[in-house]
Specification:
It holds the Pfam family Ppx-GppA_III. The chain has 19 helices and 13 strands.
């Protein structure tokens, strides 16, 4: 490991896709990124996904073996210079934690599972920051992956529309071309299925008046390359050229028969299904021309990791602000709870040796701000309603576990709980999660009376026995005398904690 992280100028991104695992390493030279290493391994993770969304042992072993090889190249990298993300197959696999646990044995870096919308956002950022486009252009970006297809549209640096659909070249190959035979009826069925996946978007996409379109991924790269093989000098994909290409492909009887110089044997196994998806979407949206871009998810990750250390945090904060306004949350009360959480957390942090990523501290404050987001549904069961909204909202900037942690904190911020019910997280430890939840519960409870004049400094938090989950909360005596309901609430909270070892709450009035 490098002794001084500031002297380390290489950054690595690993993309655990449904078809292939990719590793890209770039070096920062004079504030510009230079790619110095790329490696692609065809893992075909999605082929091991059965109808019950369980990954097979064989596919898990293939993925883990690939990561073990990647780990050899990354052994000298600081963790902060590595970003590893999983996409569609790891999103939907019910036994993904089995994969993550096995991977952790050979690959000592955190693996983040990102939502389809977050993937689409990153693909858009990767494309527009490497292609020459005008600020005024309405930009359309599509990526046909192994298990899902991502679509993003925007005019500026941030897309205004991001969508992900569960259709990919690997999954469609299994579904529509199980014997790898090619026929017009099979191809049309796959195209129609792709159109159905986007039919509710068609009117909205067409209303955006797209001025420039880009396509990323192996499928679109193959289409672009075959057009070059056929003598199309600029490689631009147009409706007529795409029609011609489909006609050429349908002349073959089997995947292995397809014979173009640029199409590898590996790509042949998924090209027809990927072409069907792209053709269906291209026609449904009425795209006039589309340019292939080499930049997508991995470049988007690199850009955000190196451009500005605060940029991702700013995106997350903007997401929180949008939800705050959308659900018309009581600003004064939410800020009061957040300030109380900050006051308690600051004291806890000074006394513990538990290390926290800055994002965890932010998630605590955001959970305090949004704990009443479900009030728009009903006060009864508000913690459940709030958690549901947060778990199922599109939240740019958050990976899946960060979003899940936010919703989990809010889910258990009030009433009785069993800590056994708190789900497992691969990126965070219980010794990090429990104190955040304990602090949030206290911050909400202390502000139950919704007093705008409450001073959080009348509460002092101390850790007992060097245990980060054992709290002593000292109340100012004068405050306790005039706020007996708060004291009663704290006594009830004390009983809840007693039922959940190792939690402990001691209340002291001084």
């Amino acid at each position: 490991m490098q002794s001084n992280i500031n002297d380390f100028h290489e950054y690595a991104v690993v993309d655990l896709g449904s078809n292939s695992f990719h590793m890209v390493i770039a070096k920062k030279v004079n504030n510009a990124l230079q790619v110095i290493y790329k490696h692609k391994q065809n893992v075909h993770l999605a082929t091991g996904l059965n109808h019950d969304f369980q990954l097979s042992e064989t596919s898990i072993c293939r993925g883990v073996a690939c990561l073990a090889m990647f780990a050899e190249r990354l052994k000298d990298f600081p963790v902060s210079h590595i970003k590893v993300v999983g996409t569609y197959t790891l999103r939907v696999a019910k036994n993904r934690y089995q994969f993550l646990l096995e991977a952790a044995k050979v690959f000592p870096y955190p693996i983040e599972i990102i939502s389809g919308q977050e993937e689409a956002r990153l693909i858009y950022i990767g494309a527009i920051n490497t292609e020459s486009v005008a600020k005024s252009d309405v930009k359309f970006v599509i990526d046909v992956g192994g298990g899902s297809t991502e679509i993003a549209i925007g005019t500026g640096s941030t897309p205004t529309l991001v969508e992900s659909r569960p259709m990919g070249c690997v999954t469609y190959a299994k579904q529509f071309f199980p014997k790898q035979t090619i026929s017009r009826p099979l191809f049309e069925r796959a195209c129609f299925a792709a159109e159905q996946q986007v039919e509710k978007m068609i009117k909205l996409v067409k209303s955006k008046n797209i001025t420039v379109a880009f396509g990323a991924s192996g499928t679109i790269k193959s289409i672009y390359s075959i057009l070059l093989d056929l003598g199309v000098s600029d490689g631009i994909i147009t409706p007529n050229r795409l029609d011609d290409l489909v006609s050429y492909i349908l002349e073959f009887k089997h995947f292995s028969d397809i014979d173009y110089p640029s199409l590898s044997d590996e790509r042949k196994a998924v090209f027809v299904s990927g072409l069907a998806i792209f053709y269906g979407v291209f026609k449904a949206f009425g795209i006039k021309e589309l340019h292939y871009t080499q930049s997508a998810l991995r470049e988007g990750l690199l850009y955000e990791m190196t451009e500005d250390n605060k940029s991702l945090q700013d995106i997350c904060q903007k997401t929180i602000d949008t939800l705050f306004k959308q659900y018309r949350i009581d600003e004064q009360h939410a800020n009061q709870v957040a300030q109380t959480a900050k006051h308690l957390f600051k004291q806890w942090k000074k006394q513990t040796t538990v290390t926290l990523d800055p994002i965890l501290e932010s998630i605590l404050y955001w959970s305090a701000l949004l704990h009443e987001i479900g009030l728009s549904i009903n006060f009864s069961g508000i913690h459940k309603h709030s958690a549901y909204i947060l778990q199922n909202s599109n939240m740019p900037g958050f990976n899946e576990e960060q979003q899940f942690l936010l919703s989990t904190l809010v889910r258990y911020h009030r009433k009785g709980l069993k800590i056994e019910s708190i789900p497992y997280f691969s990126l965070f430890e219980t010794k990090q999660i429990y104190p955040l939840l304990q602090i949030l519960r206290l911050a909400v409870l202390i502000n139950n009376q919704r007093s705008s004049t409450l001073d959080p400094h009348v509460f002092t938090l101390a850790i007992m026995d060097n245990d980060p989950c054992k709290f002593q909360l000292t109340l100012d005596q004068q405050f306790a005398q005039h706020n007996r309901l708060v004291v009663l609430d704290l006594e009830q909270e004390q009983l809840y904690w007693q039922q959940n070892k190792p939690w402990q709450l001691h209340i002291k009035i001084d």
